[in-house]
Amino acid sequence: MNFALVQTLNGLTIGTLLFLTASGLSVVFGLMRILNLSHGAMLLFGGYVGMSVQVAGGSFLLATLSGVAAAAILGWIVQRLFLKTLMGSTFRQVLLTLGVAFVVSDSILWAWGGTPRALEPPASLQGSVSLGSTVYPTYRLALIGLGLVSALVLWQVWERSLWGAKLRACVDDRPIAAAQGINVGAVFAVVFVIGAALAGLAGVLGGVVLGVSVGLDFEMQLLALVVVIIGGLGSLSGAFVGSMLVGLLDSFSKASFPSLAYFTIFAPVVIILILRPQGLFGRKGVM
Amino acid sequence: MTLVVVVAGLLAVTLAGLFMDSYWVGVCSQALMMGLAAMALDVLVGWCGMASLGHAAYFGTAGYVLAVLTTRWGVNPWFAALAGVAAATFLAFLFGPLAVRTRGLAFLTVTLAFGQVIWGLTTKWRDVTGGSDGIAGVPRPTSILGLPLTDQRAFFLFTVVIVAIMVLVLVRVMRGPFGLQLRGVRLSELRLRSLGYNANGLRVAAFVISASLVGVAGVMFTFFNQFVGTNTVDWRLSAQILLAVVVGGPGTLWGPFVAGFGLFFVQIFATDLTERWTLILGLLYILAVLFLPRGIVSLVVRRKKTGSGVDMDHVLEAGDGASAAVERGA
Description:
The complex is a heterodimer. Chain A is globular and about 60 Å long. In chain A, strands 1-2 form a two-stranded antiparallel sheet. Chain A contains 11 helices and 2 strands, in the order H-H-H-H-E-E-H-H-H-H-H-H-H. Chain A has one domain (10-113, 140-275). In chain A, helix 5 (138-160) packs across helix 6 and helix 10 (236-256) runs antiparallel to helix 11. By secondary structure, chain A is mainly α. By secondary structure, chain B is mainly alpha-helical. Chain B has one domain (2-131, 145-317): Orthogonal Bundle (ABC transporter involved in vitamin B12 uptake, BtuC), CATH 1.10.3470. Chain B has helices spanning 2-19, 22-48, 56-73, 77-99, 104-124, 126-129, 152-175, 177-187, 189-194, 199-225, 235-248, 254-273, 277-291, 297-300, 322-327, and strands spanning 135-136, 143-144, 147-148, 227-228. In chain B, the strands form 2 sheets. A two-stranded antiparallel sheet of chain B has the order 1-4. In chain B, a hairpin with a 2-residue loop joins strand 2 (143-144) and strand 3. The longest helix of chain B has 27 residues, at 22-48. At the A-B interface, helix 4, helix 9 and helix 11 of A face helix 5, helix 11 and helix 13 of B.
């Protein structure tokens, strides 16, 4: 019972971090058909900047804000300098983000070295909470709560705001949306930077749980891609359900069969590809 | 064209190899294997428009099977090499039919995910693969036709012969009806299907051929180094092979071969000078994407408009939109 409860909470923690990472990845893909392979690198860059700010004596809030800002700026540079000029050429864009991923990841290794580091949780969230017969770190519970809140906020913006309506219109049919007077380029830029900022947030908040180290960028990138395959590209609800599913699978399989951990995450990918290649919430024709 | 260039190139490399010191002979041997791997991936990218970012899986699997069989079970190196290639082929039979259900970027994502499964297994399944330590002491076959393969120069000649055979077979196959059918899959899947061809079957066939040739490269690489490590299943290797195809000019076979060969030299020079090979690989990617959308081939010859070869802008696109319409159920 305790095992199940703890692993479920662990899974939801990872799921929350994955949702923050995958939502941006998925929406950017739905919007512009850009598969951003440097998303994980942006996450890690945010995490390292946040960690350095904290080590230099900054508060957790300041560390979070600077990590988010760092990732957003990196996203802005990539969008502004490269992706904008390659508009309409999907393959060149994905190769470019792959190059950016290598450059950023190796530069991080250069600047910060290879020793894994971690962030300290804020003082108010240190310690643990008693849950019946077991205890669980307060910080992780707060993280799960934050994940739910951010999912709700994103969903409200997506479904209920004028801006979200424009965004969905762009995802559904870009040329028609442009013909209606929506500035698709601006929507794309904003979504890309927000996506990078959310990845940076996942990097800092996850830095307490997973630490920050080179390698994490690719691991999170891959899990986020698996989430997107399972949930369906361009779907926010798909990203949420997929994240929680992958998070739970990850934590249960790592605890039960550590040597086959990757294999168990991959099983649902196979099932999805056989039964529903467009993903749980995806529509046909998006790929 | 392809044949002339490849034969002339191999002859030149062989001649040069006979006058170099044994370190550079070794570098040349490995560069030939990388050229072969890139050429094999070109079957998918250049003919079918399927960009795989997981080809290291087949490279590494072949190497690991060879290493495990020879070091743990004392299997004869020749048989173990065959088993290694067979394992890569079998793996492609497993992954291929699943991966070809997707197109374009989804295919790239799925092949990357499959590749990482193999990476995950090799790094975590320590009892069999040795984890991050890899497996050392893989024996080479002692000799072939009187050539002692333990000698670096003899092994180089052996590599040249193997690579030449693979190249000749591949060029022949891709020039023949099979290559045309594959090109048809990319240019107009609907028409090909209406002619009675099984488009997904052809895709799987291309996938398997490509993977088994990469497996040959993996086996040779493991024989050469007498060691296999997680670098052979790393996604950076997949990315390096894909970069070679893209830079070389997809759909030309010799372009990717030359680029794969050259890129390995760049890697050797880069790792000699700095520890930042990954950074340089990333920069090369960015430069190639921005400034060489048609590959190095475009610097050498003007591409004929025959539907042979594709530039980077069109790798992932179907020719006439017909297949996209089929996918939408129209």
